[in-house]
Amino acid sequence: MKTTTKWLLSILALIISLIHFIPFYILMTTAFKDRTDFSSRWLFPDYVSFANFFDAWERANLTNAFMNSIIITVGAAVLLIFFGSMAAYPLARVKSKVNQFIFGLFVAIMVIPPLAALVPLYNLVVQMGLINTHAIAILNNFASFLPLTIFLYAGFIKSTIPKELEEAARIDGAGTVTLFFRIVFPLLKPITATILIISSVYIWNDYQFAIFFLQDSSVHTLTVTLSNFFGENQNNLNLVAAAALMASLPMIIVFLFLQKHFVSGLSSGAVKG
């Protein structure tokens, strides 16, 4: 690649990064300013005030919202990794028309908008009495993200894990279950980190289903709580900014811990997906 082209791509990447960073910068300048500070939101204050954070935490009842979001996100992510990896393994290793059909079916499901199933899903949930429960939020997010999880795991297993390793384990007497959990699953760490980041961010920020299935305030997630809090405090954006900044921190921390495996896992999983 020519040097000029590299510079142009670097400048383009910098511009795109700045465009994404600007809203976050304004969020921080707004959150750390006192409510009586009417200076430009483009200027970072020469002081740091945490009053907005304490006030927003108490008034928005963020303790309850954080607990609900954590329970739903962790519950759905654990189910996705456990069942997604096990479902992808035979689809990646056993070549048959049935497996090809099932894999194609999962890929086809990924292009269907989740809201297309909202009405029949809502009727089913009401009949089962699962409205306003953590269980329906976990199962709903698990079902929504399972096809992509299987797609990424299957592609990673095909392209990265050699069959010879599994054949050697079978010669040593390992059964399928032992082989998967002791040999294959530990090698799935990069794609597991990728799936964990993508699915956690998606579930943590889910609003479209949470607003329908979690209507009681005791089970509101952060997105629903912030939406209501914004409606009540449109004239006090410092509080809203502080609440939004606190709500985004867990996913930022998760990404920073797992970013080392994120790109390698995503690219490897897409090679033969």
Topology:
Elements: H1 3-31, H2 51-59, H3 62-93, H4 97-110, H5 118-128, H6 134-160, H7 163-171, H8 176-187, H9 189-204, H10 210-213, H11 222-232, H12 237-271
Helix pairs in contact: 1-12, 2-12, 3-6, 3-9, 4-6, 6-9, 6-12, 7-8, 9-12, 11-12
Residue stretches low in confidence (pLDDT < 50, at least 5 long) are none
What proportion strand? under 5%
What is the gyration radius calculated from CA atoms?
23 Å
**Percent helix range:** over 70%
Sheet with most strands = none
Shape: globular
Termini separation comes to: 28 Å
Total number of strands: 0
Class inferred from helices and paired strands: mainly alpha
In sequence order, what are the helices and strands, one letter per element?
HHHHHHHHHHHH
How confident overall, as mean pLDDT?
86
Number of helices: 12
Which key features would you list for this structure?
273 residues; 12 helices; globular; 77% helix; mainly alpha
In words, what does this structure look like?
The protein contains twelve helices and no strands. It has helices at 3-31, 51-59, 62-93, 97-110, 118-128, 134-160, 163-171, 176-187, 189-204, 210-213, 222-232, 237-271. It is globular, with a radius of gyration of 23 Å.
Short summary of the structure?
By secondary structure, the chain is an all-alpha fold. It has helices spanning about 5-30, 50-60, 60-95, 95-110, 120-130, 135-160, 165-170, 175-185, 190-205, 210-215, 220-230, 235-270. It starts with a helix and ends with a helix.
